[in-house]
Every structure is written in structure tokens, then in C-alpha cells.
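pasting input
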Amino acid sequence: MAVAPAGGAHLQAARDALHTLLAAEPVGPAFAILRLPEEAAALLAAVEAALAPGPSRSPPLGEPEDPAGEAGFTAAHLAALERVLGSASLETFLRRRPVCRLRPGGAGPETEWEDWHLALPELRAVLLPMADPAAAPWLGRRLRRLLDRRLLLELARPEEARRRGPIGLCLALASLTTPGFLRFDDVLGAAGRARVVLGLLPEDMLADPEGFAFARDFCRARGYRLALEGVAAAALPLLAPDQPGLDRLGLDLLRLRWSPDLPAQGGWLRAALPAERDRVVVTGAEGAAAIGWGWEEGITLFQGSLLRPRG
Amino acid sequence: MTNEHATAARPPPTLPLLPAVRRSLAEAPGRVALRLAPAGPLTGTPHRRRVAKVLLQDAALSGGGQVFETAAGDLLLLGAARPAAARAAAALARLAGDAGPPETWHLPGDAAPLLAWAETASLPPPAPALPDPVPGLAGLDAALEALPPARVLRRRGILLHAPGRPPLLAARRLVFSRAALMAELGPPGRDPDLLRHAEDRLAARLARLLPGQAPGEELVQDPPNSPLLLPLPAGMRPGAAPRAGLIGVLPLAAAADPAALADTRRDLAAAGWGLALGGLDAAALRLLSPGALAADLLLLRWSPGLAGQAAALAGVNPVRLVLTGCDGPEALDWGRAQGLSHFAGPHVETLLAAARLRACPEAAGCSQRQCGERATATEAAGRGFCRNPRLLAALLP
């Protein structure tokens, strides 16, 4: 990596030299010239990628990391998990992650709400290390419904509900009309519901568009805020192609999954993001590049392990 | 599954009601509690119970307070404002008929009897945490492995009806019959996710029984290399297409990860397959832009609700669309008005059967319905009574 003033001859000379050296390489450009500070986020992303060669993409909420080896998932695995999960206490697998407001030049991250979930990878490691629900997506969905029920059960304890601040939950579409959810809804009361962000997955929306519309309208009528969860940038042209995209979907928030290649996407992505940037959360923001890119795009809500809220 | 931490089961605890009652007494003087006793006219059956609970919840919504169901089966509205509680009590009394109004405690005056009752009441243990246990779940995969796909597969026609040309059977489609699959699977078939899992596993087996490779040939009986749509299993790339014209169908949910879908489509194309996405319907068109769906074909499910969604199709080349589920001439009329020319569904099967009967010299004694059923069968036995199997299998009736 070299840094030089814009318009100088050094970079051009270096680029020519690299071209000569790499002329035999059949694949795309081995280097890029980035303008600073405009393309600082792209530079940060490149540096972070170089420093941490492992995959930096975080899995969507509620889904496991890709297993290193070949792990299957059968109906027998699911039946065994259901037997255990039906009775075991899952309190130790409850996790929360803050979603923070972080402004450029601001004082530091401030928690807007906390995402609650059951740590499926850890549960899996304890219960059934050789099985991977990702190998059988529909069995995985049923497992997700079960975990949702357990999560809602934990969160619906009235004394818990009173103690908690604003929360975010990513739930399966089918979970939103279950008795467990209605009980949770009842315990929350109207004021509590207004402090809950419900995240719905795009794959659930596409798998059952009509069911999505029904559950969405019900949840909105109850006063929840609704988010589209774990959205890949590449899915934006499909889901929110016009500026009022979120309004058309009937949702309040877009939770955009960070990926190091976002800064390189340029104008189309900027145009595809909701104009009210306050309605965008960058999730999996594990590095400075994610925050830098978010700021360049006017986004100030982030979720990621880097964020340590004040106080 | 022998881990001790995981199997150390704890019975779910019941919660005492008394703390909630005390809080309510402290927080809301001048309020009311209503109680419906167990096994009464409004609590005796689950259905009446739900109705009674909704009425109490409505009162809590407008008048404050909270509704509890005790372990013994009482329904309690606690801490509601008097007017809302009185309205609920009157409504419940009307429903309960002769049994009269619910027990009413005015607070704080009636605190003593309320507290005395609450001493002994507890909230039930939380509802069972499982989706209801499904008998046969553990053996589902083995049952699927033993199930011949032909028992639950149906072959359907796709009609090409372009303006100014006679209708033509342009392609075939293999689909799973949900009804047949549910009948084969028993209880697991009643869970929507398990049903989709079954389809997925069977699609994986189908990919190994492809037409052109014995013994899959019998599933289709089409002229060689005529276009054929068949379900693809999630996450599995079929091998090199054994013949031309194969198009794999993935559910719309596959489009949630466009990068993975693009990889799949590229791999399929390299192996000689086309890609179709199923599951697009009127509700989906209200949510997404079909023009951004990266697939060779889009299967659009007909419903009268599509009529209001024509504008959403503006960005899609009609050649990429197949209107499925056409149940009458109005579906075809609507599709043609949008520039579509490919149609499938029961109405198309009826048209095809009628065309076959007109063309068939052996048709004496055959009804249109029989001809239609034989044409959709993928088991040889299902076509056995046809005396003209060549015409039954032909793409040009």
C-alpha cells in the first residue's frame, strides 16, 4: 500500500511498474487507487481484510456458522434436539447484543436497544456437535420455531419484562401468531410493545408473502416496530428498489448486513438505501471500516462486537 | 445426545399470583378485579375460554389492568378501571346466560377476599415449549428414502398460447402433489416445514432419477429433449444434465441471497440446466420487484388478486413468465392481456385432455377426467388404462 498526494507522478509510475510485473496475471486488477478521504471506508475495509484473512461475514442472526467439516442434519437429529430443548433450561444460552447509535464526532456508542437471541451455535456445540441445521434448511426452520418459543418463554416472565429496556428479536414468521408470542405480547402491554423491534427475515418474507403481510399488519397494529433482518446489499434492488421501499414493505427499519465489499458498490447502493438513513442499521459491524462506511452513507445505527456502549 | 448438561431437565416452575395482586392493589386504588371461576359457562371449553379471555383483554386494553389465567383455570382481570370492567362484566353476563355476572371485587374495599383467594392461586407452568411433538419425526428421512417419488409426483403441461397461433403443449412440469405427500407422510406431513423438507429430500432423489437415465424415464415419457421443469433441492447442485431442456425450479426464498442464487444459476447453466423460480404471486408482487429476480423463468401463481398487480410486472419480459394455477379461462385472458404466452394449471389440463380426446382414435369410452388423470400420473400403473400412450405422452395433442 502506498499513500501519495493526488495528481502526483509517483502513483502513476508505481502503477505502471506493477502493470508490467503482473502482466501475466490473467485475473482482474491486483491493486486499486483510492482517493482519500472520500474512499476511506474502502481503504479501511481493504486493510482490515488484509489483517484478518478469515471470513469477516457474520452469519445472519439465528443461523450457525458454516461448519468446517461435512455435517448433516436429519429428521432424527431434529427429533433428538426437540426432546432435549423441550425440557432443558436455556437461560445460560440467552444472549444480548447492543444496537448502538454512534455519530461521527459524538461522545461514543449509546445503546438504542438490545437484540436478544438464543446462541444456536453454542447450543448445537453442546447438544449435537456433529449436526448442522444449515444442511437441511426446512428442518432448520422448524428448529428455529422451537427456539423462538423458548426465547419468548424466557422473555415473557413478567418480572423480566418489567426490568428490561428496549429489545430487538429476530423471529420466524410463523412464530408471530403462536400462543407463546401472544403471551409475550400480553405481558409487554402497549408501552412495552412500542419498545420492541421485531426482525423478520427476507427468506421468510419470500417463502410466504401473504403470511408475511398478515403477520406484519398484526404486529404493526399491536404497536411493534418492524425490521427486515440480515439483508444482503445485493437483495436491495429486489426488496426496496424505490425510495419508499421500506414503506412499501410496511417496515420501519432495514438491517443491512455489513460486508467488506459494500464500500466498493458505489452509487447504486447509495440510491437503493432508504432515503431516511435513520431507518438503517448496519449489522455485523465488526470493524472500523463498517462504521466508516456507515458514516459516509449517513447511517448512525450499528450492531457489532466493536461497539461497547458507554455507561 | 448424552450430554449431561443438556439433559438435566428442570420441571417448569409455576408462579404465585399473589405478588401481582399485591402490586395491583398498591398501584391502582379505585380499580376493579373480575374473576371467572373454572369450569363455569365461560371457562368450561377452550373455545368459550378464548372468547371470555379476549373480552377481559379488551377491558384491560381500554381500562388498564392485566388478565391472568390461573393453574386451576380461573380467568382474572386485575386492576381495570371501573367503566371498562363494568362493560366487560355486562358482556360476560350476557354470554353466560343464567350463570350471571362474574365475581367482582371493588378495590381497595374488597381487597381482603381478593387476597384470600389469591393466596391459593398460582399461574400455570409456561405452555409446553415445543411445537407439538410429531410422531414419526425421527423416522421421517428413512420413510422418505423408502417412498418411490412417482407416488407423489405429478406431471403437468405448460401451454404455449401466443396470439395468432394455435395453442401448443410447450413443456412439461413435474410437481409434488401436496395432498398425496401428506397422505403418505402421516403426522409429519401436517407441519408445513416438515412437508417442505419432504419435498426437498424427494427433489434430491428425483435429481438422481432424471429422465434420460433409467429408471427415471418412466416418470415423464416425453419426447426426447422436450422442455421439462422439475423441483430442485436446496443447496444441491445436480450433475451434468442428461438431456437438453431441463429447467430446475427453486422456491422464491432462494432469491433472499442473490449472490448464492447467482452462483447456483451459473453452476446450473454450466451443467446444462436452466433455472426457474416458483412462488411468485399477487402478495409477493406487492413486496418485491420481479424484474430483479435472476432466473430464466418465473412461475407466477394465478389468483384474481393479480388483476390489480399488472403494473408490478412492467419490468419483466413476459417471455420469462409462466402463469401457473390457471383455473379457468379468465386466468388465460388476464395473462394474454399482459403479454404472457405460457400457462399451466387445472384449466390447461382440461384443455389438453379435451384436445387429446378429439385427436384420439382410441378414445371411445374415455372421459375427459380419466384422460386428464392418466396424463398427470407418473406411475406406470396410473397410465395403464390408456390405449394410446403415445398420444398421452406427446407434447402436441
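fyi Chain A touches chain B through 59 residues (CB under 8 Å).
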